[in-house]
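Instructor's aside before we start: the two examples that follow are unrelated to each other. I chose them only because their records fit on one page, so don't look for a connection. First example below.
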Amino acid sequence: MMTALREGVSDWPTAGFPGVRMNPDTLLPVVVNEDALESALAASEDPADRIMALLLENQPKEAAELLAEARYKDPESFRLRIFEAEVHRATNRLDRAIQLFRQLLQEVHGTSKEAIVHQYLGRAYFVSGNALAASEEFARALDLRVANAADAALIYSSAVALQRARDVLELAS
């Protein structure tokens, strides 16, 4: 187990959970401090945290099984609905992930959760190879986060993702 933050990742955006950061090249979350992750998981009773960890460990089948059980108990959970789409993204069913994120976006439009869904939708587009749609979603997430005076780490995460998508677009042209 690692006891310190993996070298060279201190400027990577946080990914919303201890020991996890967003890789600025792939825009996907990665474990950078296993000890911090394990400690946070041990202290958590939220099944969404374990689902996230299973996805990070590249165990989407196990994540999907735990997700089904958790969604049965709490079908309206916003976090679990996010992870439902994330399981699809992790298993390369990107069209389904995008569809679920778009549906969720319609439901949370105008709420404090809208920026979160734009960020996840942007990542799904980015992973699917659609850097233009990704940059549009990241720009919306960034605008909403700035307008709502979100935490600086969230604003930074959106800014890094937007810049990466724009860099990919520039390289493609």
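Example two begins here.
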Amino acid sequence: MLKFDSTNCFIQDFSLPSPIIRYLMINANPENLKKLYKTCKYFYSEFQLNIVEDLILNNEELLDKPGPYEIFLYNHQLDKLPNNLWLVRDLLIGDNLNLSQFFSKIVRCDLREIYIYVSTKFTLNEFKILTRSETVKEVFIDMPIYISYEGDEKVPLEDILSCVLSAYRIVIDNCYVTKNTMEK
């Protein structure tokens, strides 16, 4: 993850005209934005989005070392997670986690795989935040999804499936759905 220090910034003279730079900034995907961040601090000062490819919040010890755009944290270290997150590829949330604190840090989601194994209630609104971009290919949720925190009413499967139309594998509360079974 990149750290930003504004003490040594100075005005840039780009080789491209301003309208092209503005177009690049507005239409940047995560890969292009990472390249822009590496070239000049100006782009991070304008966007201030922390791009995270893989985010793992779990209480289990992981053997792999995180890469430059990956974050592995224990659940009790949630306050160390930066604000303005742009989740790009994979998300794994496990054990006991303060979901409202976690979702307050997310700005954009373009996730491909979602793995959620929490012991707290998980609501449909939180699921919609994670799947808003319609890029999700695989979903694994080890508990039912509830309509709200107050009641115990579970969300019907067709409402969940309408959020992940591009997914080819969905496992929610031990109910397994694949692309082939959705088309029948």
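The radius of gyration is 19 Å.
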